[in-house]
Specification:
The complex is a heterodimer of chains A (187) and B (403). In chain A, 40% of the residues lie in helices and 5% in strands. Chain A has 187 residues and is mostly helical. Chain A has a two-stranded antiparallel sheet. Chain B folds into 2 domains: 182 residues, Sulfite Oxidase, Chain A, domain 2 (Alpha-Beta Complex); 121 residues, Immunoglobulin-like, CATH 2.60.40.650. Classes of the chains: A mainly alpha (187), B mainly beta (403).
Chain lengths: 187, 403
């Protein structure tokens, strides 16, 4: 192959490689950049380690007030359940024929309580409670379950530090776990 | 109930049934041939015949509240494998939001090179694709009695549609995944801000961002204007009204994947992240609530599906499980879609128990309820894919044989 053609071939290869590299960055050029402020406004995910928990705090006693106003009509005055899930008790029942799955007996991670209350509760006005009040209601529900003293105050650090009783009882998916013979005759 | 009474092979001149008018039967000319019908445009969006008004979603009458609730597809009244959009099953956790697509945004952030925000017009600019997939709620049905009377009562949290949208993989690549990206946390724009974590392998495989269903834009109940669709995974994970994708190293362990959608075993342990819906089938005709009007020929027909791929075979028993025979599968047999099966049958008028058993392309065999309970116990709540038998009485009445 003459030198000139070799050069052209090499140039084509380099150009293609550059083009593919640019493509790997943003193949279609669709959408616009999300700003840190936009992300901060929408990202309300709290993981099991409490990452992204906001500043603020709330006491069990304040939580009692908020719970009476915002939660008790569905979850019962003491979290015993009603239109909404039962939130309290059930310890020791998970191996019985009538398991009672509550925050205290079943939930593996305390920060999930903050995450869920903030994003979805109260059902008629989600994302209406202040962060302080979400900490407070979380504190009261944990107190009702015997997991926090009545004079306690919760914040990002103390909520994350709470070890839920059922934490170590979750396992992965072993399925297929049921084997059935495909019997055709004289079954 | 539409389709509730099956024709039993009428012979000779007809006896008049309730609501019939001899003036419209042979040899007379029916009244609807003697005058013009409704003019063009009398229905700008077509609806079913008024004679099919009983074929509607199956909504329980006695729920404590209807904001976090589910409604079922009337499977026993449908043919084929595609669920009409108006009859697609529903499950929402904070009601059905009314979203203006012009004001809807999808945010993609976390472990990506370039966090992005997309409008609906942006999403529709990506290369599109269409696939037929089933969608099934993982709690369909529970393991404990009562199980219900009809096929809809038992497994009606199941539907199937042709979905059009964009491969999630393309959208993730647009932002550029960073090393350590193992999960994507999806969030809905509903009043529950419903959140589930999806393993990155699924996101880079067949996961879709969907904007159309059976040719038209998604219905509000199905996530208008945008939803996630994870073929073969429990329905709860196909987050509706999708507004945010958070790429992360770990799951978020949301309430919906810890306190709910986990499976309690007899020893008190609980299985989490139980994504796949295993192979399953049910006879929809004849099925509970219907009646065989007379002995003679009756086609047995039903649906089979597997989250693990294609249905390889469906067996049917008409003798209470003593013997089984292979049913005919209606083409197309598609991966992670409903497959229609049929078996010609001559009912001799005696008491009979009929049931179907699906086998998928992995060789997995749909188990009996007893086999499931023996391994999982009655505290297990989700992922009940048991064989479901129907009992046919001597008078032709069909009832749930497990009830």
């Amino acid at each position: 192959m003459p030198t000139r053609e070799l050069c052209i071939a090499a140039l084509v290869v380099v150009t293609l490689a550059c083009a593919m590299r640019a493509q790997a960055q943003s193949p279609y050029g669709i959408g616009r950049s999300a700003t840190p402020a936009e992300i901060a406004g929408w990202n309300i995910d709290i993981d099991r380690d409490g990452n992204n928990l906001p500043a603020g705090s709330g006491s069990v006693s304040r939580g009692h007030e908020v719970f009476d106003q915002q939660c008790a009509s569905c979850h019962g005055a003491k979290g015993e359940g009603g239109l909404g899930d039962r939130l309290v008790g059930g310890g020791g029942t998970l191996v019985t024929p009538e398991p009672v799955r509550t925050v205290g007996s079943y939930w593996p991670y305390a920060p999930t309580l903050f995450d869920y209350i903030r994003r979805a509760m109260p059902q008629n006005a989600p994302q209406s409670l202040s962060n302080d009040d979400v900490y407070a209601v979380s504190a009261y529900i944990l107190n009702l379950n015997g997991l926090l003293p009545a004079d306690a105050t919760l914040d990002a650090r103390t909520l994350t530090a709470i070890k839920m009783p059922n934490r170590n009882m979750f396992v992965g998916d072993p399925r297929p776990d049921v084997k059935s013979p495909a019997c055709m005759t004289d079954c | 109930m539409g389709g509730a009474v099956l024709a039993g092979g009428l012979a000779g001149s007809e006896a008049l049934a309730a609501g019939e008018n001899a003036d419209n039967l042979p040899p007379n000319i029916p009244e609807w041939m003697k005058t013009p019908g409704d003019p063009m445009g009398s229905q700008l969006y077509g609806t079913p015949s008024p004679f099919e008004k009983s074929v509607v979603k199956n909504i329980p009458k006695d729920l404590p509240q209807y904001l976090s609730a589910s409604g079922r597809t009337p499977l026993q009244d449908l043919d084929g494998i595609i669920t009409p959009n108006g009859l697609f099953y529903e499950r929402h956790h904070g009601g059905v939001p009314t979203i203006d697509p012009a004001q809807h945004r999808l945010m993609l952030h976390g472990l990506v090179d370039k966090p992005l925000i997309f409008t609906m017009d942006d999403i529709r600019r990506f290369p599109s694709q269409s696939h037929i997939y089933f969608l099934e709620c993982s709690g369909n049905p529970e393991y404990e009695k009562p199980y219900g009377k009809t096929a809809s009562d038992i497994v009606g949290l199941l539907s199937c549609a042709e979905w059009t949208g964009v491969s999630l993989k393309l959208v993730l690549q647009e932002a550029g995944l960073q090393p350590g990206a193992k999960w994507v946390v999806a969030e809905g724009a509903d009043a529950a801000a419903m959140t589930r974590s999806i393993p990155i392998e699924k996101c880079l495989d067949d996961a879709m961002l969907v904007y159309s269903q059976n040719g038209e834009r998604l219905r509000p109940q199905q996530g208008y204007p945008l939803r996630l669709l994870l073929p073969g995974f429990e329905g709860n994970m196909s987050v509706k009204w999708l507004r945010r994708l958070h790429v992360a190293a770990e799951p978020t362990y949301s309430r919906e994947e810890t306190s709910k959608y986990t499976d309690l075993m007899p020893n008190g342990s609980a299985r989490e992240f139980t994504f796949y819906m295993e192979a399953k089938s049910i006879i929809t005709r004849p099925s509970g609530g219907q009646r065989l009007s007379a002995p003679g020929f009756h086609e047995i027909s039903g649906i089979a599906w597997s989250g693990h791929g294609k249905i390889r075979r469906v067996d049917v028993s008409v003798d209470d499980g003593k013997s089984w025979q292979e049913a005919q599968l209606q083409e197309p047999v598609l991966t992670r879609a409903l497959t229609r099966f049929r078996l010609p049958w001559h009912w001799d008028g005696q008491i009979a128990v009929i049931q179907s058993r699906a086998i998928d392309e992995t060789g997995y065999v749909q188990p009996t309820l007893a086999e499931l309970l023996a391994v999982r116990g009655e505290n297990y709540y989700y992922h009940n894919n048991a064989i479901w038998p129907w009992r046919i009485a001597a008078d032709g009445e069909v009832t749930n044989a497990n009830a």
